[in-house]
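Late entry, written up from scratch paper. The run itself happened at the end of the previous shift, but nothing got recorded in the book at the time, so transcribing now.
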Amino acid sequence: MRIYTPVTIALRVIIYSLLMFGLAEAVRFDALFPMEEGYFGEISMVEILQEIILFVLFVFYIVFGFKYRKIQPVSNIVSLFFLISFIREFNFIIDFWLYPALFILAVIGWLVVRDFKKLKSATQTFFSYPASAWFFSGFLVTYIFSRLFGRSKFWLLIYDESDYRLAKAATEEGIELLGDALMLIGAIEFIFVWMAIRKGEKQ
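Output as recorded:
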């Protein structure tokens, strides 16, 4: 199965562009129709989409690891990391979210020790596929850039203290959603990789 032909690349451009359009419209929807007092709060279209994507990524990498054993040591860790992120999204209704998150972090530590000898090979295999570039790019956008770009000290340089919060929230949450979507695209690309591998094994 050839996954990088001109036709499949063109389809990706169209589909992923539509995805980006949908994300931008979700941010716009929250600006037009705030779901709670204020804008871009915990109950909003952007937040709900973030939670859905994180849960999908958690399930995907667990399943993908079982299907493709060569990367399972890495896939398990990635999956549990997304589970922690998913739980963290509900800190506004679950006061004790830190405890299950710490438990999962401990499980990750146990997996690192258990699969230590396999991690080098699994990591090399995982990052040898172009799909991993989508994953890594999304990770940097969501967990590094959006956090740094959302610092109040930066926004106070260009806005008054009375009105900077709306622009800050819209930008930070929108960028975070973008990063999540890039990681979702990475998962979709890994599906194509798996399909190609399976077809190759049957030949």
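Residues 48-202 form one domain.
(Scratch paper discarded after transcription.)
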